[in-house]
Amino acid sequence: MLKNSIRCYSTAKPQVGVLMLNLGGPENSAAVHPFLLRLFSDKDLIPLPFMQGGKYNFLPRFIAKRRTPKIIKQYNEIGGGSPIKMWTEEQGNAMVSRVAELCPEFEIKNYTGFRYAEPLTEDAMDQMEADGIQHCVAFTQYPQYSCSTTGSSFNGMYRHIIKRQKEGNPFKMTFSAIDRWATHPLLVKSFAELINKQLDAVDAKDRHKVVLLFSAHSLPMSVVNRGDPYPQEVGATVEHVMKALNYSNPYRLVWQSKVGPSAWLGPQTDDAIKGLIENGSKNLMMIPIAFTSDHIETLYEMDIEYGEEMRKEFPEANILRCESLNMHSTFVDCLSDLLADHLKSDGKTIQQMALRCPMCTNPTCGPMRGFFSSRTIPQHLSGCTSDDKESMKSFG
Which of 14, 17, 117, 126 has the fewest other C-beta atoms within 10 Å? Predict the structure, then answer.
């Protein structure tokens, strides 16, 4: 995908900042409560009752306080904190290094912007401006778009842009966005390679029997019923991966991390594992299809709750987990390809970005989509072109 035919012609050295957007995670016990409070206060992510209008009410504070001891215990079981910042920074450094080779005329620096943990997205934006960044590429690290994840991060960015304008201190840097990449060929190839690697460790006579369980973070049905594109885009990733595997194994798409009593997308991953084993499937592999690195959903939920604890309950079963993308070389190529393609194009999002969900009621969503879907890379900053004029397409 990365083409050696890309060349650069600008004599300037535009300062481009790549803001890698993700949910984030607490690095230590002291950071758990602030993380949970921000998370449960975000109406874009979890639409709790009684959160309409004004500042967040008592409910997010109550839930965060109640859940903090339990979540601290879970993080302690995976080393004391989330590794997502480490992985995001390492991925970003490797990506920028590869893209810099393709476009040496750009001065590119990666930044991390988390929604609920430090470094917060708004702080990262301010730091980029202070560092003299001329153009910010908002690069979501959620391959599949959801209003609860990428949408929430973009809403946060848009609110901060408007806030600085109202304060008389508008951003000088310009913005563009990479908003989704659910079926990018190198993402698909990355998953296929890691799945085959895990299958290679299975006895040859059982390899074709392994049920592939593609596990993604679930969503409340209230969000799904608004028309959120996430389930469709996760399903598209699964189908492309299975096609790359030549449909070698039986498979299902399952959902994890449900919170609270309301209805969420199902079946839940743990319920699916139990049901499949009880129905006679003894070889199972969990695949974190919507996560780009290890964090609590893989290291605790998958490895401990769905792995270690299920093996105790069903000792006759062989429950495996595919490695996360982390620093897999093909995945770094995927990130690099997406960024290089974005920088050498006009920087526009695909048409999906401008479309609101049919039942959307979020007052920020419309203006945010209008803002990011109309952004391009300013012509005076464009330093890359292609000899063969064939665009490296970002699928999604």
Answer: 126
